[in-house]
Every structure is written in structure tokens, then in C-alpha cells.
Give the backbone structure.
Amino acid sequence: MVKITYIEFDGTEHTIDAKPGVSLMEAAVNNMVPGIDADCGGACACATCHVYIDPAFAPKTGKAESMEESMLDFASESKPESRLSCQITITDDMDGLVLRLPRSQG
């Protein structure tokens, strides 16, 4: 299992054990992490699973592809470290990953 920490906008932390092979969005939803709405269920058709990747982990999470970049245009408070958590598959080397959540989704 891989430890992932989701930090809500107000600073509340949720550290979960996630199984490699699932998306960061699925792991959040399966563990009832508030702030990940995932309205489209992981189809990269909305921006309601928006997260900010800790810069130290950016090389391990990869870069957004064009479809994800297009959807991030609709995300609230998009930043250079913005990603859609449905588009990142958890791997063993992501143990300790820290994600911050925006004030609101969509």
C-alpha cells in the first residue's frame, strides 16, 4: 500500500493507504476524502477532482496530456501544479505523496 495525504483548503489532512494501480481520484472517493467530487467518475470530462501536486512529487506523477490540460482550463484556481486526480495512476514510488485541494471544485 502507498500512503497518500490529501490536504483540504482549510488545512485538514487525510492520510490514506492506497492500492497501486488505481487513480488518485478513485483512492480519494473510496476513502471518503472530502473535496474530491469526481462528478464524471474519472472520464476526464469535468474538473471536479482537481488537486495541486506537491512539487517534490511532480516527476513521479508525470505531466498532463492535452485532454487533461483542456479540462484544467475549467478548474477553479488552476495553478502550474494543478492536475486532475483521475488522470494519475498510483505507483509504488508515490509513497508519501502530498496533494492539496482547491477551495472549491469545478
User: Anything to note?
Assistant: DSSP finds three helices and five strands in the chain. The mean pLDDT is 94. The radius of gyration is 12 Å.
